[in-house]
Amino acid sequence: MQVYLDYSATTPTRPEAIATMQQVLTQHWGNPSSLHEWGQRAATELEQARMQVAGLINAPSSESIIFTSGGTEADNLAIMGVARSYRSPQHMIISSIEHSAVAEPARLLELWGWEVTCLPVDTKGRVNPRDLESALQPNTVLVSVIYGQSEVGTLQPIAALSQIARSQGVLFHTDAVQVAGRLPIDVRQLPVDMLSLSSHKIYGPQGVGALYVRPGVELVPLLCGGGQELKLRSGTQAVPIIAGFGVAAELAAQELATETLRLIKLRDRLFSLLSDSPHLIPTGDRLHRLPHHVSFTVTGGITGKTLVRQMNLAGIAISAGAACSSGKLSPSPVLLAMGYSDAAALGGIRLTLGRDTTEADVDWAAMVLKQVLQRLMPLALAKC
Q1: What is the model's pTM?
Q2: Where would you find the membrane-spanning parts of this chain (predicted)?
């Protein structure tokens, strides 16, 4: 029995999106910037997708959606697009548990002379809004805080944080890649200025994402050329995968209410089934949490990477939090920021659920995981 429980990494492209991509590839393959009929057919597909993605987050205008190559480029466009609009270094604020698509651009800005403040988080991975208030400076120009943390599942108080930034005239960006399509997002009510999305997290194709930019916010583009995407992202648009993204976004919006409740039930069931395992310590915030997300750190010196490999041998896909670079395993920066030891931060695992996940999948995965732990733990303890 094979069970895929790594939906936070990527989701399978849904058939409706594939069908749309095939249609565009075979019938509407023109350059959307061309004025003739072939180009205008492609342009129609492009704008249809823009409206569909805008609808997922209730954007006030489809023109506020800028298509990118994915969530990483959307994050980079938000951060570097703001930074490049200043001639001298300023101050920006991020959280200590950001995705690398935010943390790395911030680190680059530090090399360029910018001051970057990393907000601390509590043991559950939450930012305290009071810490943001204290961190703001007269030259703070941007705050970027991830909406839903992909490794531990914690949701941030984005409404409160973005309101604090707005009250001081500071731009606010959030990476909502893990939240979109799983929880309601309404940018007309949420006081964010920019918000990142990714197609392949909501059953669309890989290689395409979007940045919502509130009307009136000015960014300097990272790519210069023909001026596509409202002059913010030059280059001929990848219309087939953008069209697939649009279909996935529209269907995600339609299914959101029922699918979110279903995922929450499965999530809580999996937590319950694993609650009697003495070797698994839940991570993240159980109350403020992504609906599809279950995460633990493993005791006894077993690394998350080891568990991923053993579960894969059993036909079950999960994910580890620790990073492996050049053959050396490094503790998870997210878990370290939450106060875990190096050993615990090496043992992070994540099981994430999706449209195809059933109760039987959850039950089977829980049983296999406990069996794997029972087999590995004596070996791990013998090495200690």
Answers
A1: 0.95
A2: none
